[in-house]
Amino acid sequence: MTKIKFTRALHKSHVFSLFLYFITALFSFAQTYEARWDQLISHKTPEWFKDAKFGIFVHWGVYSVPAYNGVGFYAEWYPRDMYRSNHDSYDYHVKSYGSPGVFGYADFIESFTASRWDPKRWAKLFKQSGAKLVVPVAEHHDGFAMWDSQLTLWDAKDKGPKRDIIGDLGKAVRAEGLKYAPSYHRERHFAYYLDHQQKWLDGTPFSGIQEELKRHPERREFYGPFTLSDAFIKDYRARWDEICDKYKPDMMWFDGINIFKFHPTHPQVVKFKDTLRFMVADYLNKGLKWNKQLLVNNKGQGPNFPLDFGVLEQDYMVKKDIPGYEWICSRGMGTSYGINFVEDKDGLYPSVDELIELLIDVCSKNGFFLLNIGPNADGTISQHQQLRLRGIGQWLEANGEAIFNTRPWKTYGCDNIRYTCKGDDLYVFVLTHPGMYLFLDDELINFKKDTEIIWLQTKEKVKWRKSHMGDGVGLKLPLRQNTDPGNPLNAAHVFKIVGGAKKIKK
User: Fold this and answer.
1) CATH fold of 413-497, please?
2) Where do the domains of the chain lie?
3) φ, ψ for residue 455 (rounded to 5)?
4) Which of 481, 483, 431 is nearest to 457 (CA)?
5) 432-481 pLDDT tens trace
6) Helices (DSSP H) in 119-217: which residue ranges?
7) Scanning 209, 232, 336, 368, which has its CA 20 to 30 A from the CA of 453?
8) How many Å apart are CA 155 and CA 148, to the nearest integer?
9) Which of 228, 237, 231, 229 lies closest to 278, judged by CA?
10) 0.70 exceeded by pTM
């Protein structure tokens, strides 16, 4: 009798398990993405990204060898500009290396050694900076793959460093608990080395490259194919699929694809754009298999995609108010993303204070701050850049509670004041130290008799009282422990108002 009961119970359990399996399978099927924009738009921004707020962008490649493009130009665009006879980089190249037709961009590869590169040291520095996401460039417009690729010999495993840069860095970064997203910028490569603006589907390579190819015809695979051909589109997707399958990026990155703007109805352009749509769907479906919340950026120009898809990202983007969507402000340490010795030798970068204030401003407006570094060709990061990363990290160690896992409030702030909130708690950022007193608007902030205010830097409770004039609330601040203007902790001061974000009852 007992045996029969057990068998029946087992049967019921088995049936229930099968039921759960089919329900789960049905749910998973329902969640898969079709390659249709009306469905892809439904993809939600991951919560981890909304919480992370700050990340490190890394532009490192063959262009790090010349490390130049004057002042005000992107150094990572040296591979193109060195062939433009009317550009400063052409004159610099001729003076430093000779004619670009004799010493071409490909000749820099053997000097891109990464001889002093330590991915674990990089990862620890990124962790120390407070960053939650690391985005190294897997391939820029120049066409050099920074991973161990089976699709080309023009990669970091076969030439230059002879290492799987993307793979080794990914292991180190993820060991520190950070998100990892190798970015992919090959979409401009087919026109990158053409002797005209990127408005055409095909054309003639720069004269220097033509001269170079006569002596080194094997380099055509590196510089070419010089047209938006079926072969390029196929290779473009294949390389991304390889990155995706090898490294499982937490974000899919697209750069600005100008050809969509110049020739939106051309059959090849339509085919390319359709390919991107299928790539996005495939990537998001892989995320379901990986059980990972994935992110896709939208450059917001061209346009690459419908403007309501993905997370809007642009270089040096600023917002004047809080938009109703998440966005990314990416920027170089200076003007360049890749290392530019003209900027770096004298540390011609924004100060630590300025970068911290920018981080605060972006976060107060529902944004994500992606700060780029440009390492040297040997794999070292300059002291000027390290100083700024560590300074941001020092400030975040004391005040990160007001940045991470927060959301924008009903107003971003005004003048030198910024706000974020977390639940019912309100964080007030003062971008310039107010002295002994700080006045806040009690029509915005929910103050009660027992409201507690904490100065995050010192963890001290701050005394406050209603103004005699009835025009706000005054905070009496403790004396600063360190008045050194070079101390990152003095970049901006943060006050936590417990319950201050609650809706005020009229």
Assistant:
1) Immunoglobulin-like (2.60.40)
2) 2-31, 47-402, 413-497
3) -85, 110
4) 481
5) 766 778 889 888 999 998 999 999 988 999 999 987 776 789 888 766 55
6) 119-129, 165-175, 189-192, 207-215
7) 368
8) 7
9) 237
10) yes
